[in-house]
Amino acid sequence: MKIKSSVRQFLAVIAILGVVSFLSMGVSANSTSVGYINVNEAYHAHPDMEVIEQEMQEEIGQLQAEMEQLMQQLQEEDQQQLQLMQQQYQQQMQQKQAEFEAKLDEAISPDLDSIREELGLEVILVDQAIISGAEDVTEEVVEYFNQL
What we know:
The chain is mainly alpha-helical. The chain is 73% helix and 7% strand.
């Protein structure tokens, strides 16, 4: 128990030192170039989005069709087996969705980095993370993506 307490105290001190050193460098959202985007709007403007989304819909559609077929077969046989199969397919669909999200991020990140540098920004954040002190660059990112 003392070890856990010591670790917590150590982590708290590290966190405080990190914040203090960050602030002592004179870096704040107002003094750095921070932009934010509406991720949904920007990502949908990227040319790779349509292809990746189509792939995802096809694969998830296949999984759903397989699940429905098995559900019809199992409905008459075993309810417990049916529930287990539903859980397995849900997990597979979630995994596929996560894979496609990672693929989309991989496709978009280099282009997002390019527009960030072109705009002279140090950081682009998601609009939901901003309360104040950053510039909305969604429109610029969408225009850049539309030109790809």
